[in-house]
Amino acid sequence: MLLIRCPYCEEERPELEFRNAGEAHVARSANIAGESDDDFEKFFFIRSNPKGIIYERWRHIHGCARFFNAVRDTVTDRFIMTYKAGEPKPSKLPKNSNDVVSK
Amino acid sequence: MKKYSVFAIAREAMRGHKGWEEQWSSPEPRKEYDVIIVGAGGHGLATAYYLAAQHGITNVAVLEKGWLGGGNTGRNTTIIRSNYLYDESAGIYDHALKLWDGLSQELNYNVMYSARGVMMLAHNVHDIQVLKRHVHANRLNGIDNEWLTPEQAKEFCPPLNISRDARYPVVGAALQRRGGTARHDAVAWGYARGASARGVHIIQNCEVTGVKRAANGAVTGVETSRGFIGAKKVGVVAAGHSSVIMDMAGVRMPLESYPLQALVSEPVKPVVPCVVMSNTVHAYISQSDKGELVIGAGTDQYVSYSQTGGLHILQHTLDAICEMFPIFTRMKMLRSWGGIVDVTPDRSPILAKTPVKGLYVNCGWGTGGFKATPGSGNVFAHTIAKDDPHPINAPFTLERFRTGRLIDEAAAAAVAH
């Protein structure tokens, strides 16, 4: 079971308290009805599904119930960092991925 | 290829088993092939087999980064059934089921297909409605499926607990008698042997690292860990890694890859005569011919390529198994493992041409691809050979996520996803 650091509760909690909520930083258009079919497909169905670093949303559903974002390596399942919802996608990741960082 | 038969066994017994030949050869890759298949799992090998056997295309290479049948083909719970709701799904899965019946003869290889029946349990009113809807839809499509009372379910599968006091009471079941299991490794080996005998090159330990395209966009071949190999047609059948390979060709996919876990118990005498699945409690169980209970769980919740998964997923499944079959509470589990399954938004596969000329994809089988192996390979070979989909896989396009013509088994499948 993964240990996940909730950036709001500021502690590592077992995965059972969390719900994965899919890829992060997928922006919904302000004018969704005006989207072309191609753009809607990209927004709604296409996912990066990386083998390596993924940016994803989690929800601390059995804790503070808030959404936040995480950076994780999908090969090792190791969390590199977690950060609050609304914060920008980190441009630089911590060098030592053994240290789980939370802003 | 020397035919396997009772006479072959007798002949080899007389001369100390020195005359058995290798089941498939391991040739050096050529510079160029007519068709390259990426991925030597069941679906990829079946595709190569049918390309050679039915379409006369034998200048084919199957490239495999590990060993053949070493991915999800060797990691699944081997359940075979075709009781899907929608016409499109019924078409492709029942096409596969018809090929299972007779596959051992066709391949001259015992794939141990055993039509022992797949029974899906209903635990509440909603389950009854869903499963009965499936029973009716299946019968309209000419697929056998019947409704059982709890007592009939118990008669069909004696160890089942149908007590009203159970945590997950059994209130009925749907039974597909033609469903069952097969020997997963033998499926890969049988197709590999049949393909190799017809001239297909199976190249193991050869990882695809890039997809080459010409200036006009058409595929010209693949970069591999053993150098460049040319081909005008490339079929990607890479399961959990499909989106990784398709990325190399510049095609982004509506796929996410999740770990799916299974486990087996110590071997015991025959006790579970059929396959029992429960959608609601996320557990399924059958017994292998070796005597092990083969138990499948649901997927983990996050994207991963780790080929492992959380122990709590297995624990949840075993909780449910022990509730439904109290006699198994003291069974010892021998080993567990995870495979990486590629899941589409509508939980139906993609078997189709792609926007890239010469690139074909067979992916998105998610948590239930094994049952479709013969049918999938059969229609995918047709798609590659004719550069046009077979009527059976024509609905399973990549474009459906743009047009909205989904095959929405996600909301309707008779199975745990």
Structure description:
The complex is a heterodimer of chains A (103) and B (417). Chain A has one helix spanning 37-44; strands spanning 3-6, 11-14, 19-23, 53-59, 67-73, 79-84, 101-102. Chain A has 103 residues and is mainly beta. Chain A has one domain (3-102): Folate-binding fold (2-Layer Sandwich), CATH 3.30.2270. Chain A has a 5-stranded mixed β-sheet with strand order 3-4-5-6-7, with no helix packed on it. In chain A, strands 1-2 form a two-stranded antiparallel sheet. Chain A starts with a strand and ends with a strand. The model of chain A has no long low-confidence stretch (mean pLDDT 92). Chain B is built from 11 helices and 18 strands. Chain B has helices at 6-14, 42-55, 87-100, 103-107, 125-140, 150-156, 184-197, 242-248, 311-324, 373-386, 400-403, and strands spanning 32-38, 60-63, 79-80, 118-122, 146-148, 172-176, 180-181, 201-203, 208-213, 219-224, 227-236, 256-267, 275-278, 283-287, 292-299, 333-343, 350-353, 359-363. In chain B, strands 1, 2, 8, 9, 10, 11, 17 and 18 form an 8-stranded mixed β-sheet that branches. Chain B has an 8-stranded mixed β-sheet with strand order 5-6-4-13-14-15-12-16. In chain B, strands 3-7 form a two-stranded antiparallel ribbon. In chain B, a hairpin with a 5-residue loop joins strand 9 and strand 10. The longest helix of chain B is centred in the first third of the chain and has 16 residues, at 125-140. The radius of gyration of chain B is 21 Å and the shape is globular. The two termini of chain B are 40 Å apart. The mean pLDDT of chain B is 95.
